[in-house]
Design brief:
There is one protein chain. The chain is an all-alpha fold. The protein has 6 helices and 2 strands, in the order ααββαααα. It has helices at residues 2-8, 11-18, 34-40, 74-87, 102-155, 160-164, and strands spanning 26-27, 30-31.
């Protein structure tokens, strides 16, 4: 009961009642369930000399929201994987948060591994396709060069046919002028 009375007068609980979506409520390292908060809320008396919205909680970091414009650092993902594997060493882990249960974490981990595998496969396919396209471009370019040389050899450098495939007629070049000394 002492814990409930001290909790009722705490700044964190008052701030939580004013803005419940801002952060989860922790007491002694445990996240309070919504049922516990609903039980404690009617017992709470506002005893603050200043509005709770002016509270600045030192060290408070809300959960990050999804930002897909940048990837998470490899170091961060590696630390998360280590933490996930470390969770297996805790036999009595239980939480009321559905996204933090072992089953949902395993599901998220499996989904991440699956998507990373698919990304790697697609990246390899893109690289292979780019290499094949580059090779096809070189082959096409060499064929066009051979065709141009063939047209020039068959019809001559000053022909309309040579001009049709991209060459300039020899007669259209300006003659070099002599410099007077």
């Amino acid at each position: 009961m002492h814990l409930i009375h001290s909790l009722q007068k705490s700044f964190i609980f008052t701030h939580y009642l004013e803005n419940p979506s801002t952060f989860p409520l922790f007491i002694r390292g445990t996240i309070l369930s919504s049922e516990t908060i609903q039980t404690l809320a009617p017992l709470h008396h506002h005893s603050l000399a200043f509005p709770p919205t002016q509270l600045k909680l030192k060290g408070h970091h809300p959960m990050t929201t999804a930002n897909f414009s940048r990837r998470l650092a490899t170091k961060t993902i590696a630390a998360d994987i280590d933490a996930y594997h470390g969770l297996g060493a805790i036999p009595n882990y239980a939480t009321s948060r559905t996204e933090a249960t072992q089953k949902s974490i395993k599901s998220a981990y499996d989904a991440m591994i699956s998507k990373q595998k698919k990304e790697t496969e697609l990246a390899a396919m893109v690289k292979a396709s780019a290499d094949a396209a580059r090779q096809a471009e070189v082959t096409f370019h060499n064929a066009v060069l051979a065709m141009k040389e063939s047209v020039r050899g068959q019809f001559g450098a000053n022909s309309d046919e040579a001009q049709a495939v991209g060459y300039k007629k020899k007669s259209e070049y300006k003659r070099p002028r002599r410099r007077s000394a």
